[in-house]
Structure to design on (402 residues):
């Protein structure tokens, strides 16, 4: 991390669409060296915009989550289609920031994950674990005239890592505290936590996916409360009661006790999992609001379980900072506060400290793109399981680029 001194005041765009497929988060940031942290950077959010996916686009993406439907022609077409939509979102958010595209150094685009299989898979002596994010960087670069860094995860996987989680690298740069251990919990479709020990060096940071975030909740609401696709504010969950039998069944999933490093996704907690819950609901006559309430409680429980199981034995924290769409679910946040109270961990959201929960991951990929462009390592091997640091991201250059 001695290379942090090379950071210059630079404008970047970050793009993110998560496992919930809500839409495109686009952020414009100004990046500068930190005045306060030896290893940090200062990020100023100049503009943020969320562009919801049109209904037919969202449905087409969801179709690709089933490997039987994800034929090469459909994946290829959606790869180009999302590239066009990401390019539009980039133009829009740059306009909102007051900058010109020519002032933007690079775009960092996470892309849309349609498949993530991080577990080791040996064939002829090779580890063929894999991950697929679509939304072609070449389309984005050539529509905007700005270099685009995309497809971040595969470089880490090439060195034996799980390609996830990636945001901890940026959280180390932005939130490291010399005085206290800090937990940063993102609640998107999947939940993931980053542990920043007090005064930590990069090789002391660790992180993992805690389990489902909004994914099961959204899946249930989509099936049980159509045309709704999410439990806005946690209002449905607030009207229900936790079903003990269902909660116990959910808690028994083997993911929660897997050793670190670990990550998960829709393959474990997606549509098939939701369908199984609805079958149980029908068989037992459970109320829909109670099923949603149980799934919401499970997400909070999994986060606290991850803390007790993997973090507290070596790093007792006093604060959990929550970002992502789940931070707006008041019922979920209430459960987190209640479950963390015995461990004397204060639960705050990004908004509580003047941040933006929605923009957090888009900002992260803008920052990761900067390191890619400078050919600097931007993964944390201890977090992902990679054998060494790597420079993640593939750079697409526009024809008239710099």
């Amino acid at each position: 991390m001695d290379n942090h001194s090379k950071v210059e005041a630079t404008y970047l765009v970050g793009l993110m669409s998560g496992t919930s497929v809500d839409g495109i988060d686009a952020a414009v940031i100004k990046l500068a060296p930190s005045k306060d942290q030896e290893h940090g950077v200062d990020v100023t959010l100049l503009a943020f915009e969320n562009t919801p996916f049109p209904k037919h686009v969202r449905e087409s993406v969801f179709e690709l989550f089933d490997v039987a439907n994800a034929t090469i022609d459909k994946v290829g077409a959606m790869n180009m289609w999302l590239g066009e939509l990401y390019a539009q979102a980039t133009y829009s958010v740059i306009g909102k920031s007051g900058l010109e595209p020519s002032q933007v150094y690079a775009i960092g685009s996470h892309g849309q994950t349609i498949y993530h299989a991080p577990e080791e898979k040996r064939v002829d002596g090779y580890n063929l674990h894999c991950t697929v994010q679509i939304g072609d960087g070449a389309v984005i670069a050539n529509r905007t005239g700005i270099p685009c860094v995309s497809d971040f995860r595969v470089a880490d996987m090439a060195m034996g890592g799980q390609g996830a989680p990636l945001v901890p690298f940026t959280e180390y740069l932005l939130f490291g505290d010399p005085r206290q251990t800090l937990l940063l919990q993102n609640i998107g479709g999947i939940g993931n936590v980053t542990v920043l020990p007090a005064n930590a060096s990069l090789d002391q940071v660790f992180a993992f996916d805690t389990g489902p975030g909004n994914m099961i909740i959204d899946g249930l609401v989509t099936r049980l409360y159509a045309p709704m696709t999410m439990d806005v504010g946690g209002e449905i969950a607030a009207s229900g009661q936790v079903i003990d039998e269902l909660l116990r069944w959910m808690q028994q999933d083997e993911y929660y006790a897997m050793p670190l490093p670990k990550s998960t996704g829709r393959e474990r907690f997606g549509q098939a999992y939701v369908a199984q819950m609805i079958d149980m609901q029908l068989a037992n006559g459970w109320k829909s609001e109670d099923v949603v309430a149980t799934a919401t409680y499970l997400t909070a429980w999994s986060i606290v379980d991850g803390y007790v199981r993997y973090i507290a034995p070596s790093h007792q924290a006093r604060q959990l900072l929550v970002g992502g769409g789940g931070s707006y679910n008041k019922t979920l946040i209430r459960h987190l506060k209640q479950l963390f109270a015995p461990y004397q961990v204060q639960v705050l959201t990004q908004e509580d400290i003047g941040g933006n929960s929605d923009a957090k991951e888009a900002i992260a990929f803008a920052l990761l793109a900067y390191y890619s462009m400078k050919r600097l390592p931007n993964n944390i091997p201890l977090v992902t399981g990679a054998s060494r640091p790597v420079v993640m991201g593939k750079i697409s250059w526009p024809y008239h680029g710099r």
